[in-house]
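Bench notes, bay 3.
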Amino acid sequence: MNRVKISADGAIGRITLARPEKRNALDRATADELAQALFALSESPVSVVALDAEGPDFCAGADLEALEEMLDADRGAHIEDAKALGHVFHTIRKMEKPVVALVKGRAFAGGAGLATACDIVLAQEDARFAYPEVAIGFVPAMVMTMLRRSVGEKHAFDLVSTGRVLTADEAERIGLVSRVLSAAEFDREARVLLDVLSVAPISAMAATKQLFYKLDNMGFLDGISAGIIANADARATEDFRAGVKRFTGRKKE
C-alpha cells in the first residue's frame, strides 16, 4: 500500500501523505516514498510543490509502533532509519522549486518538523503544532535544525522542552507558520498562493531559494557578496530580460 501519493495539475505538483489510519505517522517506508516523490517532482515540469495529507491530521510524527519494533536493533540500524527522514528534510531544502506545506489538524513532532522544513507553511485555523518527544524520553533531534532558524532560540527551547501545543495563530505569531487561513477559505486561498508561485519565472525562483538558504552559513558581508553575484547572474537570464521589457513597456503605454 502506497504511503504517499503524487500528482500534478499543470505547473502545480502535489505530494499527499496517505496513512490517515495512522494519522500519517512517519516510518522508514513513508520517508523513503516522500524522498522519491520529492525527487520525481524536482525533475518534472512543475514549478511548485504542495505537501498535504489525507484525513483530519497532517502528520502525528514518528510511527511509534515502527520504532517499538526496532527497540532491540543495533545502533547502525537506528542511524540508517533516522537518515531516511533527514534525507527528506535535506531534499526539500536543496530543491530549486518552492515546497508549500498545507497543514490541517495536528502536526506533531516529526510532522511539525516536516511542515517547518517546507519553504512556506499554510495552516488552517484548527491546526495544532507541538514537539512532545521529550515526554517519552525521545529527542526532537533533526527538527530542531529548522525550528531554531524559524522561531529563534527562546521560543524553540520552550517548545522542545515542554512539548506544549500551539494553536495556528500562536504558531504564526512566533514564525513557525507563514499564514493562517480559515477552514472555509483554506483550499481556495492555498490554490491562489500556489498559482502565484507556479507562474513566477523558474530561473528567478530557483536562484532566490538557493541564495535564501545559502545565507544560513554566511556572515553579513559574505551574504551581501553572494547577493551581488546572484543579482548579476539573474540579470543574464531570459526571464529577467523579458520581465524588464514587460514592465518598461507598460510604463510607456
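Next record in the batch:
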Amino acid sequence: MIVKPTNRTVAELKGLHLFHADISNCSMRVRMTLKEKNLPWTSHHLDLRKKEQVTPQYFGIHPKGLVPTLVHDGVVHIESNEIIEYLDETFPDPPLQPKAEHEREVMREWLRTATDIHLPAVKTLIYTRKIGKVLHKNEEEDAKYRSLQRDPELLAFHTLASTGIGLPKENVDGAEKTLLRLFDRVEEELSQHQWLVGDKFSLADISWVPLHFTLIGVGFPFERYPYVSAWADAIRERPSFQEGILKWCAKF
C-alpha cells in the first residue's frame, strides 16, 4: 500500500530505506525478504520500548504510526505483507512466489490471513503475555499517542492493552482459539509438503515464520505441531532468518 506522507523529508530518500523495530514480527518478514533478495537497504531503527515511533515526525511518514515502513526512492509503502510482495515483484530475482497462478493465489491467501489475524489474535496474545508490560504507557505517553493516532481500531486496542495488565480474558481466549485453529491448518499443510505452498520456499513462509518465532516467546503450545516445528527449524538455518530476525532479536 502506497501512502502520501505529510513528512516530506522522506521524499528525498534514494534507494531502499526501512523504518523498523527489532521485536516487530512485521518488521522481521521485511528484513528477511530483503536478505533473501540480497538487496542493500538503509536501516532506520525505532525502539518501541522507548516509544520512538510515537512522534509527529514518524506519524507523518506512516499515518498509523506502525512499523515497518519501506521508502523506495521517496515512495512510502506500508503493510508488511504488501511490502514483501512489492519487493518480490520489483526485484524478481531470486523469485519468492510460485510460478503457477493457482499456487500464487494460495500464497496470497496465507499473506491475507496473516494480516487479518495480526491485531485480533497475534498482537492480542503477545501484548497480554509479554509486550504490554514492556510497552505500558503512562498518562503523558497515552495522551501523546491519542493526539497522534486517528485509527479507531488501534485506539480501541491500546485503550485495553496499555493498562499494563493485558486485554480482557475473552479477547485472549478468542485469540488463542484463532491461532490454534490456524496452526492446525499449517500443520496439515506441512504434513503434505515441505513449505506452506508446495515444495518451494515462498513469501508465505516468510510471512508466517516470524509469528512462530514471537509466539514461542509467549508460550504458545507448538509442541503439539511437529511438522510446524520442523519447518521452523529448517527456516532458522537460512541466512535470511539469521540476518532478518536473530541479528536484531536473538530471543523474543
